[in-house]
Specification:
The protein has 371 residues and is an alpha+beta fold. 25% of the residues lie in helices and 25% in strands. It has a 6-stranded mixed β-sheet. It has a 3-stranded antiparallel β-sheet with strand order 1-10-11, with no helix packed on it. A 3-stranded antiparallel β-sheet has the order 3-4-5, covered by helices on one side. Helix 2 packs across helix 3. The longest helix has 19 residues.
Length: 371
């Protein structure tokens, strides 16, 4: 498989000290986005089922379609009463409402990243499909990034130019929600330098009977290693079965080989120390009762579900940032439900506490040398 981006660019960096046992860290703006400022926008502006016009500056309805204006952009939403989560009676209007209201904290994590949609036109109980190419009927203000691809990202043997959507405005986010793109899966890179990942991700996937609490235990072990290396990390729920940990980099001269090898090295270290708890082997037969540390997510072709993305589960769960105190409390209480959040609760959390993953956007770190 080979893939080449169309564009590239670099930036500034913070230099690491030493090798695997010591790495320099400089955190810039590591605090969460201020809850007070966010609360003014999150949880107070909505797209209601009865009138999508609460958020837009202007709206009008005709034959089940509603024309709206959001942040100066015009678009049309439709079928607002359609139930997309039958078990929760959660409608398309409520999905659009959620994405509009979460946009102040979600958009910075999406900006500039190639996005793959997972669409559910008939709701979570119906058929779904991944969409990599940005729809041709997109509004002219939805930007795209072109990536020449073959293999996993294109799904075909021959090279193919894929035009991914770039979601950088509230209007664009509402447009995607209107497509019933319940899940958004961004790459780890930005369009300014497609060969340079801005994060390392540890995707923690439990094999039954292991669960999210087992993942939380492994997350704490990963954190101990990262702390020893002087690396800042953050964690979120997947909105499904597991957890995802991130190490922000935001520096040039790091490639996907670097981040993949680092994630694998950390995973293998934990696997040797905890063979009954951790595996880095992709084979399904190796996973029962263990947590798979999926280091392979750190490749150019892979995506990870976005922070604040809804998930296509029975109920409208969300991939949600959590604090390490919440992780510790969930482990102590052996309570998987403590790490499960639905869309309305996530809006309340952000209004109260801001963006717990804001540090991923600005913290600059370098990976230690391996060997």
């Amino acid at each position: 498989m080979t893939e080449r981006p169309v564009a590239g660019r670099g930036g500034g960096r913070v230099r690491a000290r030493g090798r695997i046992e010591a790495v320099g860290t400089e955190a810039v703006g590591a605090e969460a986005v201020g809850a007070g400022a966010v609360a003014e926008r999150v949880g107070t502006e909505g797209v209601g089922a009865e009138a999508v016009g609460r958020v837009p500056e202007r709206s009008s309805s005709s034959k089940g379609r509603t024309a709206v204006e959001i942040d100066g952009r015009e678009l049309t939403v439709s079928n607002l009463g359609k139930v997309l989560y039958p078990a929760a009676a959660f409608t398309k209007a409520e999905v659009i409402d959620y994405y509009r209201r979460i946009s102040p904290v979600m958009l910075p994590h999406l900006a500039g990243r190639p996005i793959t949609f997972k669409r559910y036109p008939d709701g979570v109980d119906g058929q779904s499909f991944f969409e990599k190419n940005c729809p041709s009927h997109r509004p002219d203000w939805v930007r795209t990034v072109e990536i020449m691809s073959s293999g996993r990202r294109s799904g075909r043997a021959q090279p193919e130019l894929i035009r991914y959507c770039l979601i950088d405005s509230a209007a664009a986010l509402v447009w995607t929600a209107n497509l019933a793109a319940l899940e958004l899966h961004p790459g780890l890179q930005r369009d300014s330098d497609l060969d340079c990942p801005t994060w390392v991700v540890f995707d923690l996937d439990p094999g039954a009977p292991a669960d999210v609490i087992t993942c939380a235990r492994v997350a704490c072990l990963v954190r101990e290693v990262l702390d020893h290396l002087g690396l800042v990390s953050a964690v979120k729920t997947s909105g499904s079965k597991g957890l995802q940990m991130y190490v922000p980099l935001n520096t040039p001269h790091v490639g996907f080989d670097d981040t993949r090898d680092f994630a694998l090295a950390v995973g293998q270290l934990l696997e040797r120390a905890n063979p009954d708890l951790v595996t880095t082997n992709m084979g399904k037969e190796h996973r029962p009762g263990k947590v798979f540390v999926d280091w392979s997510q750190n490749t150019f072709s892979k995506t990870t579900v976005a922070v604040y993305s809804m998930r296509a589960r029975e109920r409208p769960t969300v991939s949600t940032p959590v604090s390490w105190d919440e992780i510790d409390s969930a482990i102590a209480g052996r309570d998987p439900e403590a790490l499960r959040f639905e869309a309305p609760a996530v809006l309340d959390r952000v209004a109260e506490s801001g963006d717990l993953l804001a540090s991923l956007l600005t913290t600059q770190q370098e990976l230690p040398a391996l060997g």
